[in-house]
Design goal:
globular; Aspartate Aminotransferase, domain 2; homodimer; Aspartate Aminotransferase, domain 1; alpha/beta; seven-stranded mixed sheet; 401 residues; four-stranded antiparallel sheet; 2 domains
Chain lengths: 401, 401
């Protein structure tokens, strides 16, 4: 028996594990320290009441003979598929049918597993800095090639730096699979329709597929910024979109997301919608009925304002960080239309040095930008997912630095 | 961009979809027909009260600031890992630690995704008949090779027929990855320690890995039959075991399962436990807190007898089918220590012909054995997952045939 040798190529530890280790060590050495964690992108506010009420009802149903539901439909219950289609798409003038939506247990699962339906010979393009899952999953299946000087031989890196306005530039080489994430993790930057249209046109001209991660779309308030790539002309023939309830309604601990694959998305007569349907029917067995009823409640008349209140809370924190740092003279990006704030470490410091400084001097934990890729070096990510009190307190502490 | 061409090799429709289509067509032509479905292996009894009570408490927690939980630990909460380790293993004298258990959303996901950590050059051995997911997931990644006369070129088929006592025989060729499922789906047959030991010894001698699907272990009452492959000498250096709460506690609609990879299971110094940990941390984000609290309750003093009552109910149905058919002169296998009954279609009929006969003449739906592999031809699967009333009624109808 032989293992998949590609697994040995990946670094064995993960960015957030390294952070956790450093924080743990500091805590052990300083047991009384009041550490404020603004590093990880995890929800902290309670589930909206409409969601918990719906889940209670669903639990009760599952405890009765008539209300019990066995295996869920592999792609989601109609009640949730229809709610998504109506509220997230038709309400914005986008025609996405229920049979173009695949409900799942998470956008991480979907962005990781989507590679199954593509040949390993494809060339992959990613932004730099980037959410590590896009790269690591391609390494695991061999599509990324070999590591050469800290980069993968079959991956095109698209630097997103101050020079490019933190947007990727169209690659000079032909890219087959292009991962884009807007509002961006980690930079918090957004893309407007005109710029995104260039990517759609590139993909259609080159026969590429855009893997569009819109997990943070709920944080967009600027009307010029598209919530979905399918707002763009021609996107249905070149794009797959990933959505998540994690950051929308605090579902990080509940696990529900969905992926859109339009019926028009075909290559050589083969429908990617049909390939993904086959993948999910074979290697996945659907999402809990209780979870799906909770997700449906997000779209209810009671649920909508409750969800909005949570998002506004996190956005207000992001704004506190962003405005506060600006007033202290930091170079700051993101933080509006996004829960993420991307800042330049002061005085040309390296990302991990700034991490250590914040942890050791003022007990604030963030995420070193270099953990997201070479172009993240010298940058740092803070998030709006803390409490308002701790966020304000963290800013006061940083001001003391 | 190129798709994964292996996907095109698989038949586009799935056994249970074909059955659903035939039943739908019959229903449409005979709208008043009272159809009894004993075909699919899905739970029908309500969730145990201890489970729903635990889930209600967890939903309430998630609705409070202090009780809210974000991203779950990728491999499961300690409370569930410890409950599994204690109750399913240590109580049986098997030492499986919490760090050898990976909680997931389903055994279908795990048996499908486990292939990620193995080289595609491995040779696969499966029983025939077999749960289709084992084969299809290997086809999708290219490991199964090419289809030649209805079989895959890189798959070793191990016939399980009346001649072999429905147990597989050790393959003459060297098999790298060996899928075994006991109590078996679809035949309902079990394996005793002496026979299973031969497989463990074979795997250790040949450097093979046994992928042991024990999803139906809760149906075992015979003390001679092992619940876990880790009851066998040497299994920790050659086996991975898949468990599920689906058929144990009716979690088909709730989605929770787990996989055991012992720390001792290494190849060339590489730990499969570590590879799977990496796979799950990268392409999966854990199971809902609410679901895991529900699963934990299965092991509580209140939960245990409630779960046993559900299993006894299904087992009683299986026994009704098995004993009833025997008294009618059918050749019948399984049905004890298993929810599945495997019967030979009468008069040398083909599986699908018997399916049509049962549907058209007495409106009983079962599963054609040929849908599970060539050696299933002429056989038929019925399950104990219906109601006791319908099961008894179905037997009366079959007696009229």
């Amino acid at each position: 028996m032989n293992i998949n040798e590609n697994f040995l190529k990946i670094q064995s530890s993960y960015l957030f594990s390294n952070i956790a280790k450093k924080v743990r060590e500091f805590s052990e050495a300083n047991p009384d320290a009041d550490i404020i964690r603004l590093g990880i992108g995890d929800a902290t506010r309670p589930l909206p009441e409409a969601v918990t009420a719906a889940m209670h009802r669903a639990v009760d149903e599952m405890g009765t003979l008539d209300g019990f539901r066995g295996y869920p439909p592999e792609y989601g219950y109609d009640f949730l598929l229809n709610a998504i289609s109506e509220n997230d798409f038709k309400a914005r003038g986008i025609n996405i049918g229920a049979d173009e939506i695949f409900v799942s247990d998470g956008a991480k699962s979907d962005t990781g597993n989507i590679g199954d339906i593509f040949s390993n010979a494809n060339t992959v393009a990613v932004c730099d800095p980037v959410y590590p899952v896009y790269v690591d999953t391609n390494v695991m299946c061999g599509r990324a090639g070999e590591a050469v000087n800290g980069k993968w031989s079959n991956v095109i890196y698209m630097p997103c730096t101050a020079q490019t306005g933190f947007l990727p530039e169209l690659p000079a080489q032909k890219a087959d699979l292009i991962y884009l994430c807007f509002p961006n993790n980690p930079t918090g930057m957004t893309i407007d329709k005109k710029n995104l249209q260039r990517w759609v046109d590139y993909a259609n001209e080159n026969g590429s597929v855009i893997l569009y991660d819109a997990a943070y779309e709920a944080y967009i308030s600027d009307p010029e910024i598209p919530h979905s790539i399918f707002e763009l002309e021609g996107a249905k023939t070149c794009a797959i979109e990933f959505r998540s309830f994690s950051k929308t309604a605090g579902f990080t601990g509940v696990r529900c997301a969905y992926t859109i694959i339009p019926k028009e998305l075909t290559f050589g007569g083969v429908s990617l919608n049909a390939l993904w349907a086959r993948r999910q029917a074979t290697k996945f067995n659907g999402v809990s009925y209780i979870t799906q009823r909770g997700a449906e409640a997000i779209y209810s008349p009671e649920g909508k304002p409750q969800v909005k209140a949570v998002i506004d809370y996190y956005k207000s924190n992001a704004s506190t960080i962003s405005e506060g740092l600006k007033s202290l003279g930091y170079e700051v990006y993101g933080g509006t239309n996004s829960p993420y704030v991307w800042l330049k470490a002061p005085d040309g410091m390296a990302s991990w040095d700034f991490f250590d400084l914040l942890l050791n001097k003022v007990q604030v934990v963030g995420t070193p930008g270099s953990g997201f890729g070479p172009s993240g070096e010298g940058y740092f990510r803070l998030t709006g997912f803390g409490s308002a009190e701790n966020t304000a307190k963290a800013l006061e502490r940083i001001a003391r630095l």
